[in-house]
Amino acid sequence: MTPGARVAAAADLLDDILGGAPAEKALTGWARGHRFAGSKDRAAIRDLVYDALRRRRSLAALGGAETGRGLMIGLARESGHDAALLFDGVGYGPAPLSEAEAEAGRAPLDGPEALDCPDWLWPDLQDSLGADAAAALAALRERAPVHLRVNTRRTTVDEAQAQLAAAGTDTRRHPLSATALEVVTGARRLRADPAVLSGALEFQDAASQAVSDLVPLPEGGRLLDYCAGGGGKTLAIGARVKGHFVAHDAAPRRMADLPARAARAGLAVHCAAPDALAAEAPFDTVLVDAPCSGSGSWRRDPQGKWTLDPARLDELTALQDEILVAACGHVAQGGSLCYVTCSLLARENEERIAAFLSAMPGWTCRAQHRFTPADGGDGFFFALLGRDVDTTQG
Ligand SMILES: C[S@@+](CC[C@H](N)C(=O)[O-])C[C@H]1O[C@@H](n2cnc3c(N)ncnc32)[C@H](O)[C@@H]1O
């Protein structure tokens, strides 16, 4: 496909996505219907679509319209190209610019428009992040880097780097975690890399690794991952500390791959049904990696930035409160409850901890930490809550 044909395909896809189609589904459907497109074409079209979604507001301003075509015109102008040269109507490329299109468009206004932030969220993000808000939003306009976690039960970081380099993937250490590598070149071959297939390396964001590093677990201790999903954080904790690991999720199918992934990584993780949890309790540590807006990872899921609304945020905060109260019942006296979100919003973070502490006597907040995308990984929030020992019993 020519560069123009890729732009035309991306513009059509963006129209579907702006109309409500999930981005991943639209891209998969497009690939099925255009078998002639090679993997390089598919990857290039995907990049165009995701770049446009990350910068939807600013590109719509530059391109003069919030349509697939408008965003593609905006993207061409943003990268300093003369849009008229790309929109030339040749072959399967996009039709030439109309006079109106050639004249439309302006520089995005400073503030939420230039930062590609929905207006309603801008005050919340400023309250939540203070002076860091603009840098965090600017980072969310960029593609996410590819990060790996070195499973130090299987190999060392130096060895992993050397083997990757010999196979054509250059990496550098990431400052957020001692086990994290950032891929510099050669990311595309990684899915078939023997170290990835054998569990010696895992794809995991560096800040997600940093959060896992903060979860305390005594050697040989018992950990419950209450919202385990794919279990990425349990695997990271298990690579650091030997213990007994139990995973739970309200949607158990999300944990389907976890036992096999854990076995590859040299760990045993038991997936417990919701009604079997009480029999497994108490735990030294319960990790609540709560469902959230995902605002810290909007680089990876930029559609989420535009579909979140105040009603959904209210639903999420109510669910976060509910989960914290349910999960804390499984913590042993003197044990720890770790609350994690990949959200940048205080409403889902500090405010949930404050609500929990005011509703549940006998708990103390021992630490809180926030990571923003400006730190080089996804945005995360971590709080460590300690269950006081009840000295009135026994
Ligand atoms: C942020 S994701 C977890 C990601 C995972 N820990 C990881 O590191 O890959 C949140 C998970 O919470 C689960 N969940 C939602 N509501 C829940 C509830 N009431 N109780 C337990 N899990 C819940 C979702 O199914 C989802 O898998």
Draw up the topology in text.
Blueprint: H1 3-18, H2 23-33, H3 39-54, H4 56-63, H5 68-78, H6 83-86, H7 99-103, H8 122-129, H9 133-140, E1 147-150, H10 157-167, E2 170-173, E3 180-185, H11 194-197, E4 201-203, H12 206-214, E5 221-225, H13 232-240, E6 243-247, H14 258-265, E7 269-271, H15 277-280, E8 283-289, H16 303-307, H17 310-328, E9 331-341, H18 350-359, E10 363-371, E11 380-387
Parallel strand pairs: 5-6, 5-8, 6-7, 8-9
Antiparallel strand pairs: 1-3, 1-4, 2-3, 9-11, 10-11
Residues 226-230, 232-233, 249-251, 254, 289, 291, 323 line the site of S-adenosylmethionine.
Task: Give an overview of the whole structure.
Keywords: Methyltransferase, RNA-binding, S-adenosyl-L-methionine, Transferase. The active site is at residue 342. Residues 136-394 form the SAM-dependent MTase RsmB/NOP-type domain. The protein has 394 residues and is an alpha/beta fold. It has three domains: 3-108, no CATH class; 147-203, Sun protein, domain 3 (Alpha-Beta Plaits, 2-Layer Sandwich); 215-387, 3-Layer(aba) Sandwich (Rossmann fold). It has helices at 3-18, 23-33, 39-54, 56-63, 68-78, 83-86, 99-103, 122-129, 133-140, 157-167, 194-197, 206-214, 232-240, 258-265, 277-280, 303-307, 310-328, 350-359, and strands spanning 147-150, 170-173, 180-185, 201-203, 221-225, 243-247, 269-271, 283-289, 331-341, 363-371, 380-387. Helix 1 packs across helix 2 (23-33), helix 4 (56-63) crosses helix 5 and helix 12 (206-214) crosses helix 13. It binds S-adenosylmethionine (SAM). S-adenosylmethionine is lined by residues 226-230, 232-233, 249-251, 254, 289, 291, 323. Residues 226-230, 232-233, 249-251, 254, 289, 291, 323 line the site of S-adenosylmethionine.
